[in-house]
Write a structure and sequence with these properties.
It contains twelve helices and twelve strands. With 363 residues, it is an alpha/beta fold. It folds into two domains: 192 residues, Rossmann fold; 147 residues, MOFRL domain (glycerate kinase, domain 1), CATH 3.40.1480. α1 crosses α8. The longest helix has 15 residues. The protein starts with 6 loop residues before the first helix and ends with a strand.
Length: 363
């Protein structure tokens, strides 16, 4: 088997794909097509890739008067700890009190942009990280609803639709009356179809907006490095159904590398264990392809899979323990199973978020 189809090379391909959609280079490339406006520049960066995206503005040589970064815990960059830059962290995927504080900060930052140029940088995760609720709703009401949607296996579109309905800043509301003299949004897409109204629940929607990175770009990067049998954005729906569809495609196809993108969902029991959608999909694929000479990596491009510190997991590196794997899925405890079989995949925060990638090799 060629070296490019060994696990180490598959992991390298995953990292190359993520590198191709990282916030800093994507923003720098996008700004190369624009001329910095004459007005003082304020930058509002929201999402799990917010710090990386702001770094791209700096790398592009644009002069920043003031910047506000609203991101996930442990996702700030030390290099951005400067007097004119504020980095503020909050919770994801379930909002917390800091999410509400972040929402207030975002509103004030936009309100203070009169006669300035306002560049808005948006990436996935912004829906939970930044929020302003109507006076009739409290966080104690919002959080259980978010947890319930996640447990029911709602996809990101359904979750963000709900958030747009109840939020005071989503769906274009934040920027609709921005008093700035110049306004532009750059977005990294983490949603099916790359719809700006769905990315972070439409918090960055305005009259001038541009998608600068997506799952398609990440998959194209892999295909440019090595031949692939299949390159599809089809990881949508419940992980059980997704695994069966992928397994059928691989079983009936030739040997080689199969690349899939998207973001599946997983239904959770009342007391879930450790894991996320990618870890669950990896274990489900291990069961579906147990008798095949197949291995693969399933991981979130942001480096975090659900409420865990892992990006996802491998399957096929060790023989599957069918009873243990089955029980792990029932208990939503795929992470523990993968840890015990030494197949957890940990990348750390990546500086981007274009949903998930599955790289599967059939020998």
């Amino acid at each position: 088997m060629p070296d490019m189809l060994e696990p180490s090379s598959v992991e390298a391909l995953w990292y190359q794909a993520v590198e191709s959609v990282k916030g800093a280079p994507a923003v720098k490339s996008a700004l190369a097509t624009l001329t910095q406006p004459a007005q003082p520049l304020r930058v509002l960066a929201i999402g799990k890739a917010a710090s990386s995206m702001l770094q791209g503005v700096i790398d592009a040589g644009w002069r920043i008067e003031r910047a506000l970064v609203l991101t996930k815990y442990a996702h700030s960059l030390a290099a951005l700890n400067q007097p004119h830059i504020e980095q503020f962290e909050s919770a994801h995927p379930v909002p917390d009190e800091n999410s509400l504080r972040a929402g207030q900060k975002a509103q004030q930052f936009v309100a203070d942009s009169r006669d300035s140029a306002l560049l808005v940088l948006v990436s996935g995760g912004g829906s939970a990280l930044v929020e302003v609720l109507p006076a009739s709703m409290t966080l104690t009401e919002l959080s259980p609803k978010t947890q319930a949607l996640l447990a029911e296996g709602a996809d990101i579109g359904q979750i963000n639709q709900y958030r747009r309905q109840i939020s005071e800043i989503k769906g274009g509301k934040l920027l609709s009356h921005a008093p700035c003299a110049w306004l532009y949004s750059l977005m990294i897409s983490d949603v099916e179809g790359d719809d700006p109204n769905t990315i972070a629940s439409g918090i960055g929607v305005c009259s001038h907006q541009h998608i600068i990175a997506s799952n398609q770009i990440a998959r194209q990067c892999i295909a440019a490095q090595t031949p692939v049998v299949v390159n599809q954005e089809s990881l949508y729906g419940d992980v059980v159904a997704v695994a069966k569809t992928l397994a059928a495609t691989i079983k009936s196809g030739p040997s080689g590398l199969y690349v899939f993108g998207g973001e599946p969902t997983v239904q959770l029991p009342s007391n879930p264990g450790e894991g996320g959608r990618n870890q669950a999909l990896a274990v489900q694929l291990a069961l579906e392809l147990a008798v095949e000479d197949v291995f693969g990596l399933v991981a979130g491009t942001d480096g975090s899979d659900g409420p865990t510190g892992s990006a996802g997991g491998w399957f096929g590196l060790t023989p599957v323990d069918v009873p243990a794997a089955t029980q792990a899925l029932v208990a939503a405890n795929a992470g523990q199973y993968l840890r015990q079989t030494q197949q957890l995949f940990v990348s750390g925060p990546t500086g981007t978020n274009v949903m998930d990638l599955a790289l599967i090799v059939k020998r």
